[in-house]
Amino acid sequence: MAIASQQLYQTLVEGTFDALIVFSVITWLLIVIKAAQHLQISWQERKFRQDFWKARDLTVAATLKLQGPTARLAQVGFHSLQQAGKPQSDLEHSWDRQVLLERHLRQQIHKERRSLENGLAILASIGTTAPFVGLFGTVFGIIDALTAITAQKSASIEVVAGPIGEALVATGVGIAVAVPAVLAFNFFLRRLKLIQADLDDFATDFLNLLQKAGFRAPLIPEEQPQTNSATPAAGTTQEAYS
Q: What's the rounded mean pLDDT across residues 76-101?
């Protein structure tokens, strides 16, 4: 009976180590993915904001083919105004131009936030639970040591060293897994808040620009088929607003 109990406790301790290894792999995988995501976003944001504010007018700005949260926000804004200029019969487009624009911009900001939040809940969960998983292994490691003492009727170092050592290692591994997860969660949460603040600032500036234009969508010229002539076709650029 004692031998069976020892095997059970040993299995539970080993299962604890396996769970912590899985937690560690998930944590570092998410850290790499989120770091690459934020590096890409940083480059995209710099590129778009530089090109957007250097544009001659809203017509040129609306034709920018760039990626990133702010670029998608601007595209949603321009598309919203273009749809507002068309006759609509549903409740979705029954608002006036300004209210419809503000509503779509707000929805897009929330969508970008939800996208950036992916993976943060997992990091937070691992950071808070990994130490307790390690303690779980520690408890059964100590129970395993006590069971070994009872079965062999001896408290010598040879009997208790192995189970006690595994118990202490389980606690250390749990903490080692939790620390990177907590640090990564706090770092990426901070980055998320900064990106959302930048999106809010851009949305405010974007609304002010369109307010000067009377909340009218810029006329985006249609793409002309490529020809062998080096001279662009006349009428491909319009700077009027609908």
A: 72
